[in-house]
Specification:
The complex is a heterodimer of chains A (118) and B (484). With 118 residues, chain A is an all-alpha fold. Chain A folds into 2 domains: 1-32; 56-118, Up-down Bundle (Methane Monooxygenase Hydroxylase, Chain G, domain 1). Helices cover 64% and strands 0% of the residues of chain A. Chain A has 3 helices and no strands. Chain A has helices at residues 6-29, 59-82, 84-111. In chain A, helix 2 packs antiparallel against helix 3 (84-111). Chain B has 484 residues and is mainly α. Chain B has one domain (7-478). In chain B, strands 1-2 form a two-stranded antiparallel sheet. In chain B, a hairpin with a 4-residue loop joins strand 1 and strand 2. In chain B, helix 4 runs parallel beside helix 14, helix 13 (297-316) runs antiparallel to helix 14 and helix 14 runs antiparallel to helix 17. The longest helix of chain B is centred in the middle third of the chain and has 32 residues, at 153-184. The radius of gyration of chain B is 21 Å and the shape is globular. Classes of the chains: A mainly alpha (118), B mainly alpha (484). The A-B interface holds A 90, 100-101, 104, 107-108, 111-112 and B 4-5, 24, 27-28, 31.
């Protein structure tokens, strides 16, 4: 049975070997000429302004977390909607409970002012 | 294979459903409540109703629900009753403490309730997926509670540490479950038993899976070498949270450990005994030795809780031995009950002596307590004696049952390590007593009625139940594990 995996082993071996050889050869024989343009983060595109580790308002984090929470909700809606007929009334009630729990969180976030920008 | 959902399914986890719903409602109610003590009383009311439902539910013992995902048996009822009581104690201790520390926020109580419902589900889980689900369900509120003293840096650091390491440990559990599924083609505990009995299971894969699950749960109950988070999290968290966390989370973790290993993995016992033997010996040694140099009482109690996890694991080492399993599970449950009582009492004293800004937490600060507050010092002495395992306390009776189970399993060297480490523990527990009675000082307590009541009550229970331990042990030995 293990022999079935032989193809994967061969693949892993050759992909690793080719990558390692390419990098090694390039490092050994390639010329190194540094220039200002080469040391920029992006070859084409905007030159970054300011330091890379600047401070971001923590509000973005809160918005992102809330977004993820309610975004995942949709992920759960989709399979339920697909098999809605099969699940019947029980599935409908379950989904209402699920929405109810989410609404509790929504009201909580709302009342606590997490949805206000200021 | 799968049957449609019936009413009985919901009855099997009635208290869990109720508690989670109550916590959701409480979260909403709290938004409009000005005085947070209303939230506290409502939370306590919810726990009391939960106990009532548990009583009502007990008529259906021996039933499984949701296609054997959860079971309702004597074991789960015993553990759930303990969990609900420990939730009540935790709320009572937190009631005045949170206000005094300036962190009285309404979210505390729903979080405790959420965590408790996860713990109760864990005690009933008969499927590894449900175990993982409830593990996360109980952990996430605990992470938040650990960082509850926000914006205190130590508390936030503790919360983050606990969260990162906890998430890591959760990963171990999932990996373990995946391996078990690979070995037995099912995650249901009864399915695993059947697979092993019919010889369908790949045993070496199953052992690896069991070991990984042991790592994850060992993290939750603070077994060496997965204990690194414990001292920091216990010290950084608000004391009332630590009291709850060290009792209830340990209870739930051991409940899951006992159920999974005693039922599904009992056939792997021969392979797992050396692992459990080593882990429990290491936990007892490291926990007790590292507790000696501590000068902070919270840190000392954290190491002590590690050591106690070791004692409990010691009794459980021989879980696969059919002649011993029943005694050892009863001993584990009894000790968990005894530890909960003693632990809440000791933390009650810590909470009474703690002052805002992490003051009053040094063991040296307990000097003179015996002269100034003799009753409180007497309570603390009882708790320390109980943690060592000296008469006349519950700790002695609990240790007696633990050692009886170990000796019945013929693991004499392990029992010797247990006794020796208990002797070591006397060193640091008695130091608190020596400080209270033989040194002079001027400690200050904050007389909070609830914390004082709980401390006194726990001291009385620690002594009284130890004089008549038979009924509690009878209850613990009635708490059988069922599958169907």
């Amino acid at each position: 049975m293990l022999f079935d995996y032989m193809a994967i082993a061969v693949f892993v071996f050759f992909s690793t070997a080719i990558a390692v050889t390419a990098i090694l050869l390039g490092g050994l024989f390639g010329p190194r000429r540094k220039s200002e343009v080469k040391s920029e983060p992006y070859e084409s595109g905007m030159i970054p302004i300011g330091p890379g580790t600047r401070r971001m308002p923590v509000r973005f984090y809160l918005v992102a977390v809330l977004f993820i929470l309610f975004d995942i909700e949709v992920v759960f809606f989709l399979p339920w909607a697909v098999s809605f007929r099969k699940l019947g009334l029980f599935g409908l009630i379950e989904m209402f409970i699920f929405i109810g729990i989410l609404l509790v969180g929504y009201f909580y976030a709302w009342k606590k002012g997490a949805l206000e920008w200021e | 294979m799968t049957t449609p959902v019936k009413l009985l399914d919901f009855i099997t986890i009635l208290p869990v459903i109720f508690l989670a719903a109550w916590a959701c409602l409480l979260l909403l109610v709290d938004l409009w409540v000005k005085h947070k003590r209303v939230t506290a009383y409502l939370a306590a009311l919810g726990l009391a109703i939960g106990l009532g439902l548990l009583w009502y539910q007990a008529a259906w013992i021996g039933n499984a629900g949701f296609n054997h995902m959860v079971v309702l048996d004597g074991f789960s009822v015993f553990v759930n009753a303990l969990l609900l009581l420990s939730g009540l104690l935790g709320i009572a201790l937190a009631y005045g403490y949170l206000r005094r520390m300036g962190i009285e926020r309404g979210e505390f109580y729903p979080l405790v309730l959420f965590s408790l419902s996860g713990m109760m589900l864990m005690a009933q889980a008969a499927d590894l997926i449900v175990v993982f689900l409830s593990l996360e369900f109980l952990s996430i509120p605990l992470y938040v509670l650990t960082a509850f003293a926000y914006p205190k840096a130590a508390s936030e650091e503790a919360g983050l540490k606990y969260f990162l390491l906890g998430a890591f440990a959760g990963g171990f559990v999932v990996y373990g479950i995946a391996l078990v599924y690979g070995a037995a083609a099912t995650t249901a505990l009864d399915g695993i038993i059947a697979a092993v009995a019919e010889g369908r299971a790949n045993l070496s894969l199953l052992v690896s899976g069991a070991a990984l699950i042991l790592v994850g749960l060992g993290f939750k109950v603070a077994i060496v070498p997965f204990h690194m988070w414990t001292p920091d999290a216990y010290q950084g968290a608000p004391s009332a949270v630590t009291a709850f966390m060290s009792s209830a989370a340990k209870l739930a973790g051991f409940a899951a450990l006992v159920r999974i290993f005693a039922l599904a993995f009992s056939s792997l016992s021969d392979d797992l005994i050396p692992i459990l033997w080593g882990l429990s010996a290491l936990t007892m040694l490291v926990g007790n030795l590292l507790a000696i140099p501590q000068t902070n009482i919270k840190r000392m109690l954290a190491y002590s809780s590690i050591a106690h996890a070791g004692y409990i694991l010691m009794a459980f080492t021989a879980f696969g031995n059919p002649g011993v399993a029943e005694v050892s599970i009863a001993a584990v449950l009894f000790y968990l009950a005894a530890y909960t009582v003693t632990n809440y009492g000791a933390w009650g004293v810590v909470i009474l002596l703690e002052r805002a800004g992490d003051l009053g937490l040094e063991i040296g600060g307990y000097a003179g307590l015996g002269r100034k507050y003799p009753a409180l010092a007497a309570c603390m002495t009882i708790f320390m004696l109980s943690l060592i395992g000296l008469p006349p306390t519950l700790g002695l009776v609990g240790k007696f049952y633990l050692f009886r189970a170990v000796i019945a399993a013929d693991l004499i060297p392990l029992a010797v390590i247990g006794v020796l480490t208990s002797l070591i523990s006397a060193w640091y527990y008695l130091r608190v007593v020596v400080n209270m009675y033989m040194r002079t000082g001027d400690p200050e307590i904050s007389p909070e009625p609830w914390a004082l009541t709980i401390t006194g009550l726990m001291a009385i229970l620690t002594v009284l139940v130890s004089l008549l331990p038979g009924w509690l042990f009878f209850l613990a030995s009635q708490a059988r594990l069922n599958l169907f």
